[in-house]
Amino acid sequence: MLEQGTISIHTENIFPIIKKSLYSDHQIFLRELVSNAVDAIQKLNMVSRAGEYTGDIGELEIQIAIDKDKKTLSITDNGIGMTAEEVKKYINQVAFSSAEEFIHKYEGKSDQPIIGHFGLGFYSSFMVAQKVEIDTLSYQQGAQAVHWSCDGSPEFTIEESPRTTHGTTITLTLQAEEEEFLESARIKNLVKTYCDFMPVPIKLEGEVINKQKAPWRESPSNLSKEEYLEFYRYLYPFQEEPLLWVHLNTDYPFIINGILYFPKMKPDVDVTKGQIKLFCNQVFVSDNCEEIIPQFLTPMRGVIDSTDIPLNVSRSALQGDRTVRKIGDYIAKKVGDRLKELYRDNREQYISAWKDLGTFVKFGVLNDEKFKKQIEDIIIFRTTAKIAEKAATATPAVEVQSQEGDVWQDVTSPSQESTSSTPYTTLKEYLERNKERHENRVFYCTDEATQATYVELHKNQGLEVLFMDSFIDTHFINFLEREYQDVKFTRVDSDLDNTLLDQDKAGEIVDPKTNKTRSEVIKELFEKSLNKPKVNIRTEALKSDNPHGTPPAMVLLPEILRRLREM
Ligand code: ADP
Ligand code: MG
């Protein structure tokens, strides 16, 4: 027969499990207690804005105090406090939070979010404390202050407290093996890590130790370039200034705020490991967002703050999560938008950033169809074209000039390598510029050192050559060939006769003094430059580079990162 029922839980058995295994990391108890204190202060603000509290709210702050003799650590806030009923409801019942009810009641009364949610954080204090006491007075008129005490067994006591000011003090008597939390340096460090951007001053030994201001929660239009740079320096001290940044802020279809920077590639920049800090409501969660941001953006740094990223699932589940994937797409799109904006508004800056970013952009294009569509027109290549010669007749190649007083000027150091006067071009510009000379043909060089003479030859023939000589370019050329099926891509050292010699003109006399034909002159020049009696042209070279066709571009990233590290 069918039987139905409710599973029951024995507090005595489950309580030790909650205490020991709620979180893998003991130190997060501080984050939990400080976030409760921040919430209590936000709540008082909201109640006051709703006109339900008319008293003086004073300077709202959190104080952390250490008593080494008594082996106690206490966290005090002057927030909303709790009545005896609230203590019974929200503290005595595990997994019971006041957050939802509160937000519902005071909706729109705060621009700061309430952090709490699950009603579990408070109990993390038992991971480090043998005894936890609460001393609290509610802001409500006529409330009686309450003292709650629990020694880690499921039994507690509640009695009256002599407290006279609204707010709450949580006092932990630490377990013998957790006395490291009596060191103020340790506490300061933890506050810096987890609570730095919480919007309330946190004091330790009378001194405010958190930054409070979270720039990523500002509207982008309120932040100056200097403020973005200052935030970068704050997060990554002693690092060169970033190449560019994007400010993430959207409420739909998911909530995310953040600022991501693309660093300058330097040997001391470890790009193999994600360096983005993940926050949830300004509370630090983790140092690693690898599952969230698209792989080709691994070198990016900065901050992501979202309540829509599931935090209690495994990393692989995170990667499969639909919202997380959408967030990844959104980030890629923001980066693409930023690149396009830079390309349009400041080509010089774009080109100099390209030297560091280009590889990753190409990698993104190979891997991400949407990103490809978005930025394919702004992929640039170094070229042999000379602007001075071409400017009058065709679309000029982009020439990098000295950086003049524009917004981006001081973003990169002036000691750039020789970008200045190195021209770059898009494929479209290249094809347009050379339309009459060689329609739908592209000549490219994959290795400047070994193909220099071929490049020279092409230049002497008035043919423009693109440099596709980074390690990702072998794959990128395959991609270009697939994308531009009507364009013939020819490596400078392959297929020499067809390439360099217009067959019709091969026999044309070009040197009236010696009666030498075009083909003879070229051959001579070529042999001379190679200092070899015979020219050995490698037509199959490209194919042998890549015997199994294009490998999935994904396998390239470790290689890219390895090489960048060696740079
Ligand atoms: P959560 O923060 O997710 O709600 P907690 O276990 O951390 O869960 O706290 C449970 C409840 O206890 C909170 O929702 C709040 O109502 C109450 N509480 C905890 N700390 C404080 C405090 N410092 N001031 C006022 N209320 C508090
Ligand atoms: Mg909490």
TrEMBL record:
Segments for region (Disordered): 403-423
Residues that hold ATP according to the record: E32, N36, D77, M82, T168, R315
Pfam name, any one: HATPase_c_3
Biased composition (Low complexity): 412-423
Superkingdom as given in the UniProt entry: Bacteria
Alphabetical keyword list: ATP-binding, Chaperone, Cytoplasm, Nucleotide-binding
Residue span, Histidine kinase/HSP90-like ATPase domain: 25-178
GO molecular function annotation: ATP binding; ATP hydrolysis activity; ATP-dependent protein folding chaperone; unfolded protein binding
Family from the record: Belongs to the heat shock protein 90 family.
Protein name, per record: Molecular chaperone HtpG
Gene name of the encoded protein: htpG
